[in-house]
Design goal:
alpha/beta, Rossmann fold, 2 domains, 6-stranded parallel sheet, 5-stranded parallel sheet, 9 helices, 19% strand
């Protein structure tokens, strides 16, 4: 729908998951074909999600139930981005974590110690089992000097019954109690995009970001130096686009319309 203005070939792809490939754990039209096209053309790619609950292995299994087969190593979560950020900041550090296995395993894997006693960081992620006790402990640790990190700023998340409170809502609660705002690692922070690019040894100038939200996917992709495609199968409607002071490189109705672009925008064969 919108013409490409940058002639450089697209060697790598990043794509959001919810609203682009799946909706309420059902594959969206074209999602399977898109992943197959990336693999057929030998494109490096990652599927991104701000959700920190699940490990890449868990997410691969969930996607396969939807009919989409994505390799475990091709899934990048805000939990992984948070772990990579923290190990760069303080290798061998410690953290009190409010979150599920996706976050705790990512921190374990980079050598962080998880503790309730004088941690370097309080790390808040998504979880379905928030407790008053853990929130209170996080507040007190932050008051004592622990640095406050959160995986993503999403205030709500989707469910079959409607919206549910997400990481950003609980971060706001802790901020209200302590006066300390967290550093959010996930989208729209372009840091998550940079960490994803590093994970597949990709360059921003030759990578395309596909997402369904102007305020997270498109803006973080743009700020990380990538071209962007907005698909209209998720949060952002076509009438919303003009509200934003920036635009995606391209707008498509769904990921099905992106499939043929994988080959068209690829480097010429030698």
């Amino acid at each position: 729908m919108t013409p490409m203005t940058d002639p450089k070939p697209v060697e790598s792809w990043l794509t959001d998951m919810d609203g682009v490939l799946v909706h309420e754990e059902q594959a969206l039209p074209g999602a399977t074909e898109f992943i197959a096209a990336l693999q057929e053309h030998g494109r490096r790619f990652l599927v991104l999600t701000n959700n920190s609950i699940y490990t890449p292995r868990d997410l691969r299994a969930r996607l396969r139930l939807s009919g989409i087969d994505v390799p475990e190593e091709s899934i990048w979560t805000s939990a992984l981005a948070t772990a990579h950020f923290l190990v760069d900041q303080k290798a061998g550090g410690s953290a009190f974590v409010i979150g599920d296995v996706g976050l705790t395993s990512a921190l374990h894997d980079v050598g962080f110690v998880l503790t309730e006693r004088d941690p370097d960081y309080v790390v808040l992620g998504e979880t379905k089992t928030h407790s008053f006790e853990n929130i209170t402990r996080a507040i007190r640790l932050i008051e004592r000097g622990a640095r406050f990190i959160a995986t993503n700023p999403d205030a709500t998340g989707p469910s079959a019954e409607g919206s549910v409170p997400a990481c950003g809502s609980f971060a706001a609660l802790i901020t209200q109690a302590t006066g300390i705002r967290p550093y959010f690692v996930g989208k729209p922070n372009p840091l998550m995009m940079r960490s994803a690019l590093n994970a597949i040894d990709a360059h921003s100038e030759t990578t395309m970001m596909v997402g369904d939200r102007m305020d997270t996917d498109v803006v973080s992709g743009m700020e990380a130096g990538m071209r962007t495609i907005l698909v209209l199968t998720g949060s952002t409607r076509v009438e919303d686009i003009e509200r934003f002071p920036y635009r995606p490189t391209r707008i498509e109705n769904s990921i099905a319309e992106v499939v043929e672009l994988v080959g068209k925008l690829a480097p010429a064969e030698v």
